[in-house]
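Feature request, filed as a ticket because there's no other form

It would be nice if the structure record came with a short human-readable summary line next to the tokens. Right now we just get the raw output. Example of a typical job, pasted below so the devs can see what we mean:
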Amino acid sequence: MSPGELCFLPGWRLRQMLAGRQVSAREVLDAHLGQVGACNPRVNAVVTLCADRARQAARRADDRLARGEPAGPLHGLPVAHKDLVEVAGVRTTYGSLLYRDHVPARDHLIVQRMRAAGAIVIGKTNTPEFGVGSQTHNRVFGATRNPWDLARTCGGSSGGAAVALATGMVALADGSDMGGSLRNPASYCNVVGLRTTPGRVPDLPGGSGLTNLSVLGPMARHAADAALLLSVIAGPDPRDPGSRPEPGAAFSPLPPRDFRGTPVAFGRDLGGLPFEPAVLAAHESQRHVLTALGCSVADAEPDLGDADRIFRVLRGWQLAATRGADADRGGETVAPMVRANVAYGRTVTAADLAWAHAARAALLERAGEFWERYEFLVLPVSQVLPFGVDQPWVTEIAGQPMPDYLTWMASCYLVSVLAAPAASVPVAFSPGGLPVGMQIVGRPGDDLGVLQLACAVEEAAGVAGRRPPLAAQAAGAPAGGAHSASAE
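Raw output as currently delivered:
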């Protein structure tokens, strides 16, 4: 099997081959580093590369297997961590000039869990400064480009992770999502991203403890691989009282499910949001996938009145609390969007917060009535196709001006208020060859059901795993291509 073929195998299959010693961890790592060398200079997804460190880890993995030690669930799989997630001894910048030389002393919990499961960390993936925005660019590393069209954005804020997956640089990646940061880049790059139920994946250290809007979750080329990664990073931790008690092991292997008769609400615009016509056309074209699976599909959407203001109040308050000191210290070296959000967050009053929490409680009560009728809601992920990589944010959709850089992503951030799991799954391409994902939202806590439906939809739609041309041409290229090695 060629190195390029290894890089695009489903992660679960690659892990089987590794555990069966059909291929070594060193061979798998070399293949993926070859993809980094060939693709990364063109897309700028992996911003810190730990090649030597990864080779040492791969050698240890092979040695453990040779001694007859059991293989972990992620044994030998190359992974990368979003540059908001701390990795001990590896530069972690948060996309900010303030932290361009920051080297943490400890691992984030998901790094600990993935490493303990046998994953091989190759480096860090690009993100906008402090993860603010759905366009992956910053003043430390620059912009990450969409592998399907290098002139366009990959979305964000987990854009580097999505591109690294789409181009075969890694088998699995982690991401985070407050208002669409997992779902938007997954849709733009033809990969899978799961916004988990709050508390499913503990956020330690780094969780704000202020709201449950921001969550961590898995990204992969296939839903079954996302389930595999979730099985490792999910599960309670006594240091996080908000973590859910269910163990992660239930998610993988992903059990198959018969969806005949399952009530699914087919949503479109969440009460009147503007969408680019090509996005709605792609979404409508996939309704037959659900009916072919036997789902009972009806046109319906939950009442998300007040969700926009709830999200903005809670998000602004959280960013002011967590990044206000950085904005003050950095001044104009900090991105204008970060400073603007901090400034807004500092105007949020106690009365505003009280209203937001009460309004959210009322919204969740209404949503509970919706979930009694429907098991899933499906709708488009993003309101527009990938736009120009040099364009900071979308200013107009279908003739309707966007007042700020948040509004164009309402199709994601309104869903965030529901405290429900939501996946982006590849389903279609536009006439111009750009990926379009379907957003599958489930009842709070039903991450398993969302992944099962995502897997079924992915198989029926038949576009998951499709390779961008530049990645398909890159097999066998020499390793290298990221900005720097780790600080070790």
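Something like this underneath would help us a lot:
Residues 476-480, 483-488 have pLDDT under 50 and may be disordered.
The longest helix spans residues 307-330.
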